[in-house]
Amino acid sequence: MIKKFLLCAVVLSQFAISCSSDDNTDPTTDPKTEEPTKDKTLAEQIAELVKKPYSSLTPAQQKQKLEVEANEMLVQLNKTKSSSAIEAIQNLGHLFSIDQVDIFDGKSSNGIEEILNISGVYGIYTWDNTKKIWVKTASKTELKFIFPAKKSQTTNNAVLSANSVSSDIKVKNTDTYGEWNYDSEKQEMIHTPTVYDYFFLPTSTDATLTIDNVQSASLTQTAKYSNSKPAPDEFAYKMSLNDGYVWEMSGKKGTATTSKAVLTYNGKILVDFNGGSSANIDALLNNEELAQYKGKANGLFTLLDNFVIIADMDLATEAADREALYKSLVRPAYPDYDKANSNHKAYYTTINANEKKQSEGIAAGFNKNFKLILVSKKDGTKIAELVQHSDKSGEYTFDLPVWYAKGGYWTWDGTGELFSRPYLDEVLYLKFNDNTEVAASVYFSTGFNDLLTKYKDFTASFKK
Predict the structure, then answer these.
(1) SS3 for the chain, per residue?
(2) Mean pLDDT across the stretch 69-98?
(3) pTM attached to this predicted model
């Protein structure tokens, strides 16, 4: 449910996000003797980390260090499962699934995302635990939800209230898709039209969650728009829990679109993301699925101030390479079943060759255009690079058809020559300092079983 709660921020952060710096230069300071220290750009940080030497540790030793660090992160993340604020948010989502709220005057299927991403909509909704419905009270000033903080409770002791300031960006959102159904009485198909929500995006939203009259969480987000585009030029989001967790996102759209996100616990960084892209966001939003709009992207993903995943990706070139690869694969014509000289073996041999070329080409395009490196900031060393290879994961074997002269056609009667077709996958490998390559699935399959179980338990707790 936490995923739904953060969806508004996550979706918008895909489009834009960045930071700004204040000019705090003292006008009395002599610039010749005292120059301000500039923060390194994302590209400069990546360039510096890429130059780090490889670690001298063996892959097995690196695995042990990774497991210890990842376990530490999960210990911190697991504490969120006991957060009263997150539990209340989960229960609010659960109640929405029982009885859909109606914040758009007659339209349904609204959830937490709409609460935070609309403006000019008001009403006080109180949960009736006996009837299992939301009871609406009209209001011209506030949007509020009163409900139990826990699923096991029957008393309404939590309140989520939201206030917003409208922009002039009006958007159309599909609320309920239309459908055709057969009416047995009228004996005809009846069409239920699609229901749409129309609302103005907010320039700012403030939301507060209280439990037993004590504030448990606060959320703020701001956005700036231009040229009637729904993707904001600038965006900032912050969620603070009284349990010590803070989730922040910010960004800026432009020629160089950048994004930042950080999750902290009592001031300690758990997860930190810093990314940039030259993608044409507005063109992509207009469904212009053309390679040139995808641009380039890079990013740093940090875990607990130590392990960093560097990503430097040329999305436009990768998309163009893949498109060219697909165009180069000419599918052979299917053999005629009524011609004795049809060559079924040649047909399937060509299909195998095409699929091999495609899988190998996709892996080659990944290695050419995507540079992914795992770095240990504490040790100042590179751990491994991520590369991709085309691997055979299995195959299926069948008998080729034989010519049935009397009937004048090809048939599968079980007597034909056996032929095999492989299953091909593009598989990620970790490439270490001694050029040893180990499939990521194999590398993390042993020694990480407990970690994987803990992670699955953690993510499962937010799906209830």
Answers:
(1) CHHHHCHHHHHHHHHCCCCCCCCCCCCCCCCCCCCCCCCCCHHHHHHHHHCCCECCCCHHHHHHHHHHHHHHHHHHHHHHHHCHHHHHHHHHHHHHHHCCECCCCCCCCECHHHHHHCECCCEEEEEECCCCEEEEECCCCCEEEEECCCCCCCCCCEEEEEEEEEEEEEEEEEEECCEEEEECCCCEEEEECCEEEEEEEEEEEEEEEEECCEEEEEEEEEEECCCCCCCCCEEEEEEEECCCEEEEEEEECCCCEEEEEEEEECCEEEEEEEEEECCCHHHHHCCCCCHHHCCCEEEEEEECCCEEEEEEECHHHHHHHHHHHHHHCCCCCCCCCCCCCCCHHHHHHHHHHHHHHHHHHHHHHHHHHEEEEEEECCCCEEEEEEEEEEEEEEEEEEECCEEECCCCEEECCCCCCEEEEEEEEEEEEEECCCCCEEEHHHHCCCCCHHHHHHHHHHHHCCCC
(2) 76
(3) 0.54
